[in-house]
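Marked as duplicate of an earlier ticket. Keeping the data here for the record.
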Amino acid sequence: MARPKNDTFLRALLREPVDYTPVWLMRQAGRYLPEYCETRRRAGSFLNLCKNPQLACEVTLQPLARYELDAAILFSDILTVPDAMGLGLYFAEGEGPKFERPLRDEWEIRDLTAPDPYQHLRYVMDAVAEIRRALDNSVPLIGFSGSPWTLACYMVEGGSSDDYRTVKTMLYDRPDLMHRILDVTAQSVTSYLNAQIESGAQAVMIFDSWGGALSHAAYKEFSLAYMQRIVAGLKREHDGERVPCIVFTKGGGQWIESIADIGCDAIGLDWTTDLGEARRKVGDRVALQGNFDPMALFASPEAVAAEARRVLDNYGTGSGHVFNLGHGINQFTPPENVEVLVDTVHSHSRRGSARS
């Protein structure tokens, strides 16, 4: 299977020469787009949208029809894995994701097993295959999963949390139980990502959304060690092509050198980390992805363009940079400002023989 016609994103992740800096956006298929809201209305609910491969394909392609993006990302949710473990995912109106059966009792944790991705998450694999067909080798498709620690936060808390009190109490009181959850979840994520690769994903990303909530010591033991295990277990080649892996810990700027050591191809950075300083720290070990502040997209078009140029100049010349937001796009973002951002990244990075 040949690389996509536009393989700039894959080349940047592998630190190969590129003509310009590629750009995609976390949560690029989302509520800021009116066409997404219309498809979601037709689906009836967010979960129905995730579990319908045809509609998941439709919304995955919507931002690419609007913008000159350099990659598509599978439309799904990080909580599909714990849902497949039987925890009963549901979305309460205005409250975000919740689980009917959060992990609190020792016997539940001991009984936890890794789901078969082809059986319990077949709809995700069907969506990946459908999206690949629809893309027709135009741009690469990114598959993804939540990190074990981030998934465990939801699985133990039963939903989102401001202070992570329940899961952190378990971490400190019963590290054996915490490790049991993380071990099964790491197995699950590894097989889930490999199934996505086998179904057609050309790069994969691990979202460690809540890793930054951990202490320095706890991050290494309860988050990074399990992501390292996943990276070691991933298929790194499929159909004769390298499959790059991105690891993103939100709030993880202080750990980038440690993250670079786990074997991933690229590190995602949020907006609190200096991109140029991060590049000096990791050298040529990994590519970097990021790190435009999503809230800057609410500013004037001129300010959006100026901030995009600043991020690019902060990275400097040479390959190994994928432009992205420092976290997911906000639902109230003006769609026209996204166009300004994408166009500015392409035009500014092409100047001066680009980032070759």
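See parent ticket for discussion. The domain at 25-280 is CATH 3.20.20.210 (TIM Barrel).
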